[in-house]
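Quick review question:
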């Protein structure tokens, strides 16, 4: 009986004028279905693919996104037009799987997938380093900007010198992406560390870069 009521509600929703509230109701309805009932509901809901892509937005806490960094796509994501994803990768001291030197190029590649119009030149237009060593109490900033005035990737790192080890707190951020697209890789490193990856953009591109990032953190790229 519950399934019949859900399908009735679904049929009504997908035929009404698209609104943010109706999309949220649809997400809730589909989240409660499993198995054959879910497959049938997804087929019925494909009519909403004519709704604006940004209206069909899955926020980073949407349970449908739970497996994207492992490359496991919930079938309901076929109905999503825009998504936000986030991932935290923590590592022990000297055990990081990511190549910090190549990260600015990696982020540029992700940005191109997220926004095909993003095509800055691979040219360093600004670079600097104010780091000073002071026997455990030094520090400063390091930065690099690649691209041109319109688009590119900016890396900026805050460095603090401690007696035991240097602490780094920085981020790689593309600029000049299409409206609404966002991408940021933040790293904090001090006797171990954490990378935080966040992205927002159209599907399937944002889901694809999430899967690539997940593979990288597992040591596959």
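Suggested answer, residue by residue:
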């Amino acid at each position: 009986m519950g399934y019949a009521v859900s399908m009735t509600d679904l049929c009504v929703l997908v035929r009404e004028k698209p609104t943010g509230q109706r999309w949220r109701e649809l997400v809730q309805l589909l989240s409660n279905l499993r198995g054959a009932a879910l497959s049938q509901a997804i087929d019925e809901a494909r009519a909403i693919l004519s709704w604006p892509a940004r209206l069909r937005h899955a926020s980073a806490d949407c349970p449908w996104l739970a497996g994207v960094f492992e490359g496991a796509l919930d079938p309901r994501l076929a109905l999503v037009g825009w998504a936000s994803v986030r991932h935290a990768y923590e590592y022990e001291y000297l055990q990081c799987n990511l190549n910090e030197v190549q990260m600015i190029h990696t982020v540029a590649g992700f940005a191109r997938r997220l926004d095909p119009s993003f095509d800055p030149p691979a040219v360093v237009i600004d670079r600097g380093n104010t780091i000073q060593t002071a026997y455990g109490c030094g520090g400063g900033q390091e930065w690099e900007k690649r691209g041109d005035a319109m688009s590119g990737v900016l890396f900026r790192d805050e460095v603090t010198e401690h007696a035991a080890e240097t602490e780094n707190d920085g981020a790689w951020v593309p600029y000049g992406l299409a409206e609404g697209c966002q991408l940021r890789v933040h790293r904090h490193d001090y006797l171990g560390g954490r990378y935080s990856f966040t992205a927002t953009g159209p599907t399937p591109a944002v889901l694809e870069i999430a899967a690539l990032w997940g593979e990288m953190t597992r040591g596959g790229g």
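Why it works: The chain is about 30% helix and 30% strand. The two ends are 48 Å apart (CA to CA).
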